[in-house]
What does this fold into?
Amino acid sequence: MNGKEKGSSVKTVPVKVGPWTIGGEKFTIIAGPCSIESYEHFLETAQAVKQRGAAMLRGGLFKLRTHPDSFQGLEAEGLDLAKRVLQEVQLPFFSEVTDPRQIGDLMDVVDVFQVGSRNMYNYSLLKELGQVSKPVLLKRSFSGTIKEWLLAAEYIAKAGNSQIILCERGIRTFETATRNTFDINAIAFIKQNSPFPILADPSHGTGKRSLVTPVALAATAAGADGLLLEVHPQPDQALSDGYQTLNFDEFENLVEKTKKLLPLLGRQLQEPL
Ligand code: PEP
Ligand code: MN
It folds into this structure.
Protein backbone atom coordinates (compact mmCIF):
# COMPACT_ATOMS: atom_id res chain seq x y z
CA MET A 1 0.00 0.00 0.00
CA ASN A 2 2.94 2.32 0.75
CA GLY A 3 0.65 4.82 2.43
CA LYS A 4 -0.90 5.83 -0.90
CA GLU A 5 -4.53 4.99 -1.32
CA LYS A 6 -5.67 4.74 -4.90
CA GLY A 7 -9.12 5.79 -6.03
CA SER A 8 -9.48 3.23 -8.80
CA SER A 9 -9.20 -0.52 -8.48
CA VAL A 10 -5.86 -2.29 -8.33
CA LYS A 11 -5.95 -5.50 -10.36
CA THR A 12 -6.01 -8.62 -8.21
CA VAL A 13 -3.14 -11.00 -8.93
CA PRO A 14 -4.55 -14.53 -8.66
CA VAL A 15 -2.73 -17.06 -6.47
CA LYS A 16 -2.43 -20.65 -7.67
CA VAL A 17 -3.80 -23.23 -5.22
CA GLY A 18 -3.79 -26.86 -6.34
CA PRO A 19 -5.24 -27.06 -9.85
CA TRP A 20 -6.96 -23.66 -9.54
CA THR A 21 -6.38 -20.05 -8.68
CA ILE A 22 -7.91 -17.84 -6.00
CA GLY A 23 -8.60 -14.27 -7.05
CA GLY A 24 -9.38 -14.89 -10.72
CA GLU A 25 -12.81 -14.95 -12.35
CA LYS A 26 -13.93 -17.96 -10.35
CA PHE A 27 -15.21 -17.69 -6.79
CA THR A 28 -13.82 -20.22 -4.30
CA ILE A 29 -15.55 -21.81 -1.35
CA ILE A 30 -13.24 -23.32 1.28
CA ALA A 31 -15.11 -25.26 3.95
CA GLY A 32 -14.52 -27.73 6.73
CA PRO A 33 -14.40 -28.05 10.49
CA CYS A 34 -12.87 -25.49 12.81
CA SER A 35 -10.80 -28.37 14.27
CA ILE A 36 -10.20 -31.80 12.82
CA GLU A 37 -11.52 -34.20 15.48
CA SER A 38 -10.85 -37.68 14.03
CA TYR A 39 -10.34 -39.48 10.71
CA GLU A 40 -14.04 -40.34 10.43
CA HIS A 41 -15.15 -36.81 11.35
CA PHE A 42 -12.86 -35.11 8.88
CA LEU A 43 -13.65 -37.58 6.08
CA GLU A 44 -17.41 -37.21 6.53
CA THR A 45 -17.18 -33.41 6.59
CA ALA A 46 -14.79 -33.23 3.65
CA GLN A 47 -16.98 -35.46 1.47
CA ALA A 48 -20.11 -33.55 2.43
CA VAL A 49 -18.71 -30.11 1.64
CA LYS A 50 -17.18 -31.33 -1.63
CA GLN A 51 -20.50 -32.79 -2.70
CA ARG A 52 -22.19 -29.46 -1.94
CA GLY A 53 -19.75 -27.25 -3.85
CA ALA A 54 -16.62 -26.56 -1.79
CA ALA A 55 -13.58 -26.61 -4.07
CA MET A 56 -11.14 -26.56 -1.15
CA LEU A 57 -11.00 -27.78 2.44
CA ARG A 58 -10.16 -26.22 5.78
CA GLY A 59 -9.43 -27.93 9.10
CA GLY A 60 -7.38 -26.93 12.13
CA LEU A 61 -4.77 -29.23 13.66
CA PHE A 62 -2.85 -26.69 15.75
CA LYS A 63 -5.40 -24.50 17.52
CA LEU A 64 -4.75 -21.31 19.47
CA ARG A 65 -7.53 -21.24 22.06
CA THR A 66 -8.29 -18.45 24.50
CA HIS A 67 -8.75 -20.90 27.38
CA PRO A 68 -5.76 -23.18 28.04
CA ASP A 69 -8.10 -26.04 29.00
CA SER A 70 -10.00 -25.89 25.69
CA PHE A 71 -9.27 -28.46 22.96
CA GLN A 72 -5.93 -27.52 21.40
CA GLY A 73 -6.36 -29.58 18.23
CA LEU A 74 -4.95 -33.02 17.38
CA GLU A 75 -1.65 -31.25 16.71
CA ALA A 76 1.11 -33.38 15.11
CA GLU A 77 -0.82 -36.57 15.86
CA GLY A 78 -3.48 -35.51 13.36
CA LEU A 79 -1.12 -35.04 10.42
CA ASP A 80 -1.35 -38.60 9.15
CA LEU A 81 -5.10 -38.89 9.34
CA ALA A 82 -5.46 -35.55 7.56
CA LYS A 83 -3.17 -36.87 4.80
CA ARG A 84 -5.29 -40.01 4.44
CA VAL A 85 -8.50 -37.97 4.15
CA LEU A 86 -6.92 -35.69 1.55
CA GLN A 87 -5.84 -38.68 -0.53
CA GLU A 88 -9.41 -39.88 -0.45
CA VAL A 89 -11.12 -36.56 -1.16
CA GLN A 90 -8.54 -34.86 -3.41
CA LEU A 91 -9.18 -31.23 -2.53
CA PRO A 92 -6.60 -28.53 -1.77
CA PHE A 93 -6.22 -28.06 1.99
CA PHE A 94 -5.81 -25.00 4.24
CA SER A 95 -4.59 -25.42 7.83
CA GLU A 96 -3.19 -23.07 10.42
CA VAL A 97 0.49 -22.92 11.33
CA THR A 98 0.97 -21.45 14.80
CA ASP A 99 4.73 -21.89 15.21
CA PRO A 100 7.62 -21.93 12.69
CA ARG A 101 8.64 -25.37 14.05
CA GLN A 102 5.48 -26.87 12.50
CA ILE A 103 6.31 -25.74 8.96
CA GLY A 104 8.32 -28.85 8.03
CA ASP A 105 5.58 -31.30 9.03
CA LEU A 106 2.76 -29.22 7.58
CA MET A 107 4.61 -28.81 4.29
CA ASP A 108 3.69 -32.38 3.29
CA VAL A 109 0.02 -31.92 4.12
CA VAL A 110 -1.22 -28.41 3.38
CA ASP A 111 -1.66 -26.59 0.10
CA VAL A 112 -2.00 -23.25 1.90
CA PHE A 113 -0.48 -22.23 5.25
CA GLN A 114 -3.05 -20.32 7.29
CA VAL A 115 -1.85 -17.58 9.64
CA GLY A 116 -4.50 -17.00 12.27
CA SER A 117 -5.77 -13.72 13.63
CA ARG A 118 -3.67 -14.08 16.77
CA ASN A 119 -0.47 -14.37 14.73
CA MET A 120 -0.83 -11.53 12.26
CA TYR A 121 1.78 -9.64 14.29
CA ASN A 122 4.11 -12.64 14.66
CA TYR A 123 6.76 -11.26 12.35
CA SER A 124 9.20 -14.12 12.91
CA LEU A 125 6.52 -16.58 11.74
CA LEU A 126 5.70 -14.35 8.76
CA LYS A 127 9.37 -14.14 7.76
CA GLU A 128 9.67 -17.94 7.90
CA LEU A 129 6.60 -18.27 5.69
CA GLY A 130 8.27 -15.89 3.27
CA GLN A 131 10.69 -18.70 2.56
CA VAL A 132 8.21 -21.45 1.79
CA SER A 133 7.11 -22.40 -1.70
CA LYS A 134 3.39 -22.58 -0.88
CA PRO A 135 0.74 -19.86 -0.59
CA VAL A 136 -0.05 -18.20 2.74
CA LEU A 137 -3.52 -17.19 3.91
CA LEU A 138 -3.03 -14.16 6.15
CA LYS A 139 -5.98 -13.54 8.42
CA ARG A 140 -6.53 -10.06 9.76
CA SER A 141 -5.85 -9.60 13.45
CA PHE A 142 -9.04 -8.84 15.38
CA SER A 143 -7.28 -5.68 16.50
CA GLY A 144 -5.39 -4.93 13.31
CA THR A 145 -5.92 -1.95 11.07
CA ILE A 146 -5.97 -2.56 7.34
CA LYS A 147 -2.64 -0.79 7.09
CA GLU A 148 -1.02 -3.07 9.69
CA TRP A 149 -2.48 -6.09 7.91
CA LEU A 150 -1.02 -5.05 4.55
CA LEU A 151 2.33 -4.36 6.21
CA ALA A 152 2.21 -7.86 7.73
CA ALA A 153 1.70 -9.18 4.19
CA GLU A 154 4.78 -7.21 3.14
CA TYR A 155 6.84 -9.17 5.69
CA ILE A 156 5.96 -12.38 3.85
CA ALA A 157 6.47 -10.86 0.41
CA LYS A 158 9.75 -9.22 1.33
CA ALA A 159 11.12 -12.53 2.59
CA GLY A 160 10.45 -13.99 -0.86
CA ASN A 161 6.92 -15.36 -1.02
CA SER A 162 4.36 -13.25 -2.84
CA GLN A 163 1.72 -16.00 -2.97
CA ILE A 164 -0.43 -14.25 -0.37
CA ILE A 165 -4.19 -14.43 0.12
CA LEU A 166 -5.84 -12.13 2.67
CA CYS A 167 -8.82 -13.05 4.84
CA GLU A 168 -11.15 -10.66 6.67
CA ARG A 169 -12.45 -12.45 9.79
CA GLY A 170 -13.98 -9.66 11.80
CA ILE A 171 -12.56 -7.16 14.23
CA ARG A 172 -13.22 -6.27 17.82
CA THR A 173 -15.42 -3.23 18.30
CA PHE A 174 -17.59 -1.87 21.11
CA GLU A 175 -20.38 -4.18 19.87
CA THR A 176 -21.02 -7.23 22.05
CA ALA A 177 -24.11 -8.72 20.37
CA THR A 178 -21.76 -10.54 17.99
CA ARG A 179 -18.38 -12.16 18.66
CA ASN A 180 -16.67 -9.86 16.16
CA THR A 181 -17.77 -7.16 13.75
CA PHE A 182 -17.27 -8.25 10.15
CA ASP A 183 -15.64 -5.34 8.36
CA ILE A 184 -17.32 -5.26 4.97
CA ASN A 185 -15.40 -2.08 4.16
CA ALA A 186 -12.19 -4.09 4.29
CA ILE A 187 -13.34 -6.34 1.45
CA ALA A 188 -14.05 -3.44 -0.90
CA PHE A 189 -10.95 -1.56 0.28
CA ILE A 190 -8.62 -4.50 -0.37
CA LYS A 191 -10.12 -5.02 -3.83
CA GLN A 192 -9.42 -1.37 -4.67
CA ASN A 193 -6.03 -1.01 -3.07
CA SER A 194 -4.19 -4.32 -2.93
CA PRO A 195 -3.21 -6.92 -5.52
CA PHE A 196 -3.75 -9.78 -3.04
CA PRO A 197 -6.93 -11.87 -3.33
CA ILE A 198 -9.31 -11.46 -0.41
CA LEU A 199 -11.46 -14.11 1.27
CA ALA A 200 -14.27 -13.56 3.76
CA ASP A 201 -14.65 -15.64 6.92
CA PRO A 202 -18.19 -14.93 8.14
CA SER A 203 -17.95 -17.78 10.69
CA HIS A 204 -15.46 -15.93 12.90
CA GLY A 205 -16.65 -12.59 11.51
CA THR A 206 -20.03 -12.99 13.19
CA GLY A 207 -19.57 -15.79 15.73
CA LYS A 208 -23.23 -16.68 15.22
CA ARG A 209 -24.49 -19.49 13.01
CA SER A 210 -27.65 -17.64 11.93
CA LEU A 211 -25.62 -14.65 10.70
CA VAL A 212 -23.10 -16.59 8.63
CA THR A 213 -25.16 -16.84 5.42
CA PRO A 214 -26.35 -13.21 5.21
CA VAL A 215 -22.86 -11.88 5.92
CA ALA A 216 -21.32 -14.34 3.44
CA LEU A 217 -23.65 -13.00 0.74
CA ALA A 218 -22.84 -9.39 1.64
CA ALA A 219 -19.10 -10.09 1.46
CA THR A 220 -19.55 -11.82 -1.89
CA ALA A 221 -21.46 -8.81 -3.22
CA ALA A 222 -18.72 -6.50 -1.90
CA GLY A 223 -16.18 -8.32 -4.08
CA ALA A 224 -14.66 -11.11 -1.99
CA ASP A 225 -12.84 -13.75 -4.03
CA GLY A 226 -14.16 -16.56 -1.90
CA LEU A 227 -15.44 -17.72 1.48
CA LEU A 228 -13.79 -19.60 4.35
CA LEU A 229 -16.51 -21.43 6.27
CA GLU A 230 -16.77 -23.67 9.31
CA VAL A 231 -18.93 -26.75 8.73
CA HIS A 232 -19.51 -29.77 10.98
CA PRO A 233 -21.85 -32.80 10.85
CA GLN A 234 -23.25 -31.83 14.28
CA PRO A 235 -22.18 -28.27 15.09
CA ASP A 236 -23.47 -28.43 18.65
CA GLN A 237 -21.08 -31.30 19.36
CA ALA A 238 -18.04 -29.60 17.77
CA LEU A 239 -14.88 -29.42 19.90
CA SER A 240 -14.40 -25.77 18.92
CA ASP A 241 -16.51 -22.90 17.54
CA GLY A 242 -19.74 -24.93 17.21
CA TYR A 243 -21.97 -21.88 17.77
CA GLN A 244 -20.70 -20.30 14.55
CA THR A 245 -20.53 -23.52 12.53
CA LEU A 246 -23.01 -24.57 9.80
CA ASN A 247 -24.42 -28.08 9.44
CA PHE A 248 -24.48 -29.72 5.99
CA ASP A 249 -27.97 -28.49 5.08
CA GLU A 250 -27.18 -24.92 6.11
CA PHE A 251 -23.96 -25.08 4.09
CA GLU A 252 -25.84 -26.36 1.04
CA ASN A 253 -28.32 -23.53 1.36
CA LEU A 254 -25.51 -20.96 1.54
CA VAL A 255 -23.84 -22.42 -1.58
CA GLU A 256 -27.12 -22.35 -3.51
CA LYS A 257 -27.71 -18.70 -2.63
CA THR A 258 -24.12 -17.79 -3.49
CA LYS A 259 -24.48 -19.50 -6.88
CA LYS A 260 -27.52 -17.33 -7.63
CA LEU A 261 -25.70 -14.14 -6.66
CA LEU A 262 -22.43 -14.76 -8.51
CA PRO A 263 -23.70 -14.28 -12.10
CA LEU A 264 -24.93 -10.80 -11.13
CA LEU A 265 -21.33 -10.04 -10.22
CA GLY A 266 -19.94 -11.54 -13.42
CA ARG A 267 -18.51 -14.56 -11.61
CA GLN A 268 -19.03 -18.28 -11.28
CA LEU A 269 -18.40 -20.77 -8.55
CA GLN A 270 -15.21 -22.83 -8.84
CA GLU A 271 -16.70 -26.32 -8.82
CA PRO A 272 -14.76 -29.12 -7.12
CA LEU A 273 -13.16 -31.68 -9.48
C1 PEP B 1 -9.87 -20.55 12.47
O1 PEP B 1 -9.93 -20.28 11.26
O2 PEP B 1 -10.31 -21.61 12.98
C2 PEP B 1 -9.35 -19.53 13.40
C3 PEP B 1 -8.79 -19.86 14.54
O3 PEP B 1 -9.54 -18.29 12.96
P1 PEP B 1 -8.97 -16.89 13.51
O4 PEP B 1 -7.49 -17.03 13.50
O5 PEP B 1 -9.50 -15.92 12.51
O6 PEP B 1 -9.55 -16.69 14.88
MN1 MN C 1 -12.70 -21.59 14.42
